[in-house]
Give the backbone structure.
Amino acid sequence: MDSVLSIIANERDLTMNAIPSAYTEFGQTLAFTERTLTAVLRDHLAQRDVEPETWYALKLVAQRGPHVTRSSLFRDLEGSPQLNAESASALLAQLASDGLITADDAIDLTEEGRVFFESLRDHVLGATVNLLGQFDLSDVETTVRTCKAIMRRAQDEAKSVA
């Protein structure tokens, strides 16, 4: 029995040694980075008395517009970590009530919403430029391309398993 355990341990050690350390560190590093950047964003948005979920919703409408379908926007919001069906519905209702988005089946930013979003975007981009400006631009571009490619590949694999 000891020899079998020894063989299994040796095989595991060989396997672990063959895996690049960047692979073993990637998930945790990405998770801690996301958590830290979310906290920074939350603090930065709080300066304007805005919740991250509001920023996210407005950004989705601005990026995907004009005429974002309510169902696709709702699906994306509901899939975010801080929102569920009830809170996503409440958020869209609040944004419409505040005059920032239209309340139709095809959602757009209102003129007031566009002005507010652009002001908020500039506020957020200032912090982003301060942070990322400390790094070589080509490194940041490579990181963005790599993260997008990993996301697409993971989504494709998840679809093929389903």
